[in-house]
Design brief:
With 106 residues, this protein is α/β, with parallel strands linked by helices. The strands form two sheets. A four-stranded mixed beta sheet has the order 3-2-5-4. It has a three-stranded mixed beta sheet with strand order 1-6-7. The longest helix is centred in the first third of the chain and has 14 residues, at 6-19. It has two helices and seven strands; from the N terminus they run E-H-E-E-E-E-H-E-E.
Length: 106
């Protein structure tokens, strides 16, 4: 199952409002590169008849059935990478370049 963290959901809602795409689903896709790594593609889009539809943290997510296996177990987050530079990050154990996030000892 694909998941979205609360931080990512909040940013998606902000982008949707700013872009005038409120009420439109977020479409997810993934592309395999020549080195077997994965690129994640997303954008607001209308649903199609054969789409898989899920709701995560209030965000309606759609994907074509062929992308569901590669996105299974993926967690989409929104994190500060460095010096105030924020980005969507995909934690996908199926990606050969995946490194599990370090757990905090707090």
């Amino acid at each position: 199952m694909f998941k979205i963290t609360d931080a990512a959901a909040k940013q998606i809602q902000i982008a949707s409002k700013q872009g005038g795409t409120e009420g439109i689903a977020l479409r997810m896709a993934v592309r395999k590169n020549g080195d077997e790594s994965l690129d994640y593609l997303m954008g607001f889009d209308e649903m199609k008849d054969d789409d898989i539809v899920e709701v995560y943290s209030g965000i309606q997510v759609v994907m074509a059935p062929e992308f569901a296996p590669r996105l299974d177990q993926t967690v989409m987050d929104y994190l500060e990478l460095e010096n105030g530079d924020y980005s969507f990050v995909f934690h996908n154990p199926q990606d050969p370049n995946y490194v599990p996030p370090e757990k905090s000892d707090e």
